[in-house]
């Protein structure tokens, strides 16, 4: 017997409007500011316009949504992400490939994302405004992380022994390891892949270290 396809849940009125609110926030605007920048009446996206006087739900038009995406320099894919993860309280964070993280210009001296060339991805919310995402490349972190997995890194989150961390050395090497021990003079790191060696770094070799707070597994 053929397997019946899994039923998909229809989008809700609340989901669509929540995604539009997040689209405005992503652009640094209020809903009315996004409407105005889109060439629409400033009240188009106001909460008072989302339900009619007799209680019927009013949905944004395809035209207004298209103009909002263009005005906020966002793609339909981004909006779909905001409907999914974003609608459950997520946010967009900067994203680059893991190999790029070792290149210059992507981080400041504190390990915060900086410069250009970052993409964006909608992921579960974090209270760290400097949080960012890295896309895993290669198999050096298997079985913990596979190629294509996305990890969210939070520079502001406290780090404890046993946490998975991203470490960047002063020489530009970037690695994901488990923190085994940390003192004022050294950093002892356990490899996530048993085929790769553990690492011991002098404190002066470490440019920055940040905790992995989420993975897309």
In short:
The chain is 18% helix and 26% strand. The protein has helices at 13-26, 31-37, 62-71, 76-83, and strands at 91-97, 119-123, 132-135, 150-154, 164-169, 174-182, 186-191, 199-202, 206-215.
Task: Write the SSE topology.
Blueprint: H1 13-26, H2 31-37, H3 62-71, H4 76-83, E1 91-97, E2 119-123, E3 132-135, E4 150-154, E5 164-169, E6 174-182, E7 186-191, E8 199-202, E9 206-215
Parallel strand pairs: 1-3
Antiparallel strand pairs: 1-2, 3-4, 4-9, 5-6, 5-9, 6-7, 7-8
Helix pairs in contact: 1-4
Highlighted features:
434 Repressor (Amino-terminal Domain), 2 domains, 217 residues, alpha+beta, Umud Fragment, subunit A, nine-stranded mixed sheet
């Amino acid at each position: 017997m053929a397997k019946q396809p899994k039923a998909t849940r229809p989008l809700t009125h609340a989901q669509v409007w929540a995604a539009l609110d997040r689209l405005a926030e992503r652009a640094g605007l209020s809903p009315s500011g996004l409407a105005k920048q889109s060439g629409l009446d400033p009240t188009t996206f106001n909460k008072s316009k989302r339900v009619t006087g007799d209680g019927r739900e009013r949905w944004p038009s395809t035209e207004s949504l298209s103009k909002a995406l263009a005005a906020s320099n966002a793609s339909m894919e981004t909006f779909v992400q905001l409907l999914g993860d974003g609608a459950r309280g997520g946010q967009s964070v900067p994203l680059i490939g893991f190999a790029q993280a070792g290149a210059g210009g992507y981080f400041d001296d504190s390990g915060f994302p900086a410069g250009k060339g970052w993409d964006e991805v909608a992921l579960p919310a974090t209270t760290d405004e400097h949080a960012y995402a890295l896309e895993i490349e290669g198999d050096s972190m298997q079985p913990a992380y596979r190629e294509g997995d996305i990890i969210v890194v939070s520079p502001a989150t406290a780090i404890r022994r046993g946490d998975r961390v991203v470490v960047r050395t002063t020489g530009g090497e970037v690695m994901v390891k488990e923190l085994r021990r940390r003192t004022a003079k050294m950093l002892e790191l356990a490899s996530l892949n048993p085929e790769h060696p553990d690492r011991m770094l002098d404190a002066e070799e470490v440019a920055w270290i940040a905790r992995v707070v989420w993975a897309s597994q």
